[in-house]
Amino acid sequence: MPHDHADHDHLSPSGHPYRKDQDAPLTHWQQMEIALRELLIDKGVTTAGEIQNQINAMDSRSPANGAAVVARAWTDPAFKAALLADASAATREMGFDIGPMNLIAVENTQAAHNMIVCTLCSCYPRNLLGLPPDWYKSRAYRARTVKEPRAVLAEFGVTLPDGMTVRVHDSTADMRYIVLPARPKGTEGMDADGLAALVTRDSMIGTGLPLAP
Question: Is 171 a catalytic residue?
Answer without folding.
Answer: no
